[in-house]
Amino acid sequence: MPIKKGYEEAVSWLTNDKLWQGFGHAALRVLLILLIGRILLWVIHKTIDRVVLERESKRMSTYGRRMTTVAKLMKNVVSYVIYFITAMLILSEFGIDLGPLLAGAGVLGLAIGFGAQSLVKDIITGFFIVLEDQFAVGDVIQTGQFKGTVEMIGLRTTRIQSWTGELHIIPNGMINEVTNFSINNSLAIVDISIAFEEEVDRALEVIRSTMISMKDENLVNAPEVLGIQAIAPTGVTIRVIAECLPNSHPIISRKMNMEIKKALDASGIEIPYPRVVTYHRNEKGGVKDGA
């Protein structure tokens, strides 16, 4: 009977010792591959956490969020790579030929690379922007003709909002040069002109005493009066500088101008203004001065 014969063959196949030995060895190798993959993944994740924590401890608190993003991104990339390698090894244990599979994946990746070169460039550039800490969310940067506060950093695009409210969405591949105004302390520079007739030493003393008493949360050090910067026919220019927190120099400059103006007015020190000197001819043909 065909049914009986098929039953006997099935029983014989299931009771074959070599079959179960081979299956057991294959299952043991698969479990070993999975175990090694998990251990390797755990070790790499711990290494990334340690490196990120060491770098984060050396930076300001505003960089903690960025370093966390870098760690998550690196963990995801490592996980995908290890999962792919583990899956390939397991498929090879079941006798599947990986050559055509890898070749097909290579051809597919090559086609995607040629068809989306700009996209690949944007993603790679975005990855290195995050990895190298070029700028972070909240930083004030300038790239090309765009300047503003960074609102979002993605792997493909970066959003920058200008101080007048415009939102610029820039592909990362177009970011070739970046000027970051939010990393180092900035310098506020104020040039004050006083009338040529005023006493320079007195004006310097008034400005210096005013700057010493000036208080602001953005100031790193008290403003410093450097001295005379320029001499013009109508006045003398005095330069004052102040080290302040990153990107706060416009605020400090405006406040310094206000405080110095009040101090000069209170001391009766005039600033230069246009003056006209006229000459009046007398009846005898002489000339007398007048103003």
From TrEMBL:
This is Small conductance mechanosensitive channel. The chain crosses the membrane at residues 26-45, 73-92, 98-120. It comes from Paenibacillus prosopidis. Residues 119-182 form the Mechanosensitive ion channel MscS domain. Keywords: Cell membrane, Membrane, Transmembrane, Transmembrane helix. It is a multi-pass membrane protein. Belongs to the MscS (TC 1.A.23) family. The keyword Transmembrane helix applies. InterPro entries: LSM_dom_sf (IPR010920), MS_channel_1st (IPR049142), MscS_beta-dom_sf (IPR023408), MscS_channel_2nd (IPR006685), MscS_channel_C_sf (IPR011066), MscS_channel_TM-2 (IPR011014), YbiO_bact (IPR045276). One of its GO terms (molecular function) is mechanosensitive monoatomic ion channel activity.
